[in-house]
Amino acid sequence: MSVMKRLSGIVQAKANKALDKAENPADMLDLSYEKQAENLQKVRRALADVATAKKRLELQAAELQTQATKLQDQAKQALAQGQEDLARQALTRRAGLADQLTDLGTQHQQVEAQQQQLETTAQRLSTQIEAFRTKKETLKASYTASKAQASIGEAVSGISESMTDAGMTLERAQDKISQMQARAGAIDELIDTGALPDALGGGKDDIQAQLDATSQAGQVDSELAALKAQLGTAAPAGGALPASSGDVAGESSPDASGPAGGAS
Amino acid sequence: MIVRILGEGRYDVPEADMPAIEQLDAQLTDAMDRNDETSFDAALGDLVNQVRHTGTLLPSTDLQTSGLVVPHAGSSLSELKELLAEES
């Protein structure tokens, strides 16, 4: 059987079940009315939950975005210092954050779709309840007439179907909200335990520590060079970097080992 | 034919437009049976649009019951399967 026919069967079965409790048409009308009002309240509560979930996703996305920008800056800084490995590390972390951000974006879209469906549901329910409130009194007043009984039956079936739809929409939204809350909780936990380090921009992270150490070392080198210059012991321009004297020594040793190897 | 889109409301669709909707319903059913998520998403999107475009949205004060029901727009294959599992 086709999807639409099967779904229709499910909706009708649920709608009939909801009305099983009523014993006579007047009861059915009252029961429908109460159920609708109850549903509307539930939909409104779900709307508040959706708004909270949406806000939370937005805050998390902003936090992750800040962290991603920071890692980008750190990568630039590391490259400027010639520390390619550190730059790579920063960019790798940034890529991890980008995945999280994409995921948050998808969730945000879903939450907005839920919000829209719930808003539509709330609007339709409230119009329907208002119209039904006056209609049910008219129907009740004349329900002894057989024609009226038929129209009560139709009205109640129609209402019950709409209530079933509202109930199913609500259930779907609640499922989505709890899934989203669980994922948001997991992201909060990641941020808290430092798996996404320093997302709140608080203390220093390890990449920053290495960058700071390197720039500090650079400063020491240049101070050292300045001191050497003052004492008149400055080597030619390149001599300011201690590394170059090491290179010179390194270059001379293979030459020295050459003759030694030949001697043995 | 009155067609309900879950979470949206009922549309009165002219009989002349029903074959196109039934065709999309068949595609959706087929995609579900084959567990093909990509075709499922496409067929559901097309079905929802087709009902919206060819049908007239009934006011919520109208109390007619529907003859066919379309899943919530944006439903996933697994969501629909869960819903259909309620049949018994």
Word description of this protein:
- The complex is a heterodimer of chains A (about 260) and B (about 90).
- By secondary structure, chain A is mainly alpha-helical.
- Helix content of chain A is about 85%, strand content about 0%.
- Chain A contains six helices and no strands.
- The longest helix of chain A has about 60 residues, at about 85-140.
- Chain A is rod-shaped, with a radius of gyration of 36 Å.
- The N and C termini of chain A lie far apart (about 90 Å).
- Mean pLDDT of chain A is about 75; it is low at about 200-205 and about 245-264.
- Chain B has a four-stranded mixed beta sheet, covered by helices on one side.
- Chain B has about 90 residues and is of the alpha+beta class.
- In chain B, helix 1 packs antiparallel against helix 2 (about 35-55).
- The two termini of chain B are about 25 Å apart.
- In chain B, a hairpin with a 3-residue loop joins strand 1 (about 1-5) and strand 2 (about 10).
- Chain B has one domain (about 1-85).
- In chain B, about 50% of the residues lie in helices and about 15% in strands.
- The model of chain B has no long low-confidence stretch (mean pLDDT about 95).
- The interface of A and B includes residues 110 and 125 of A.
Low-confidence parts of chain A: 198-203, 243-264
The pair of chains with the biggest contact is: A-B, 34 and 36 residues
Ranges of chain B with pLDDT <50 over ≥5 residues?
none
User: What portion of residues of chain A belong to β-strands?
Assistant: under 5%
Record field, number of beta strands of chain B: 4
Number of alpha- plus pi-helical segments of chain B: 3
What coarse outline of chain B follows from CA principal-axis ratios? globular
Number of domains of chain B: 1
End-to-end Cα distance of chain B, whole Å, is: 26 Å
Report the major sheet of chain B: 4 strands, mixed
Rg of chain B, nearest Å:
13 Å
Mean pLDDT across all amino acids of chain B = 93
Can you give the helix content of chain B as a percent range?
A: 40-55%
Q: Which series of helices and strands of chain A comes N to C?
A: HHHHHH
Kindly name the structural category of chain B.
Answer: alpha+beta
The Cα radius of gyration of chain A reads 36 Å
Question: How are the strands of the largest sheet of chain B arranged?
Answer: 3-2-1-4
| Percent in helix of chain A | over 70%
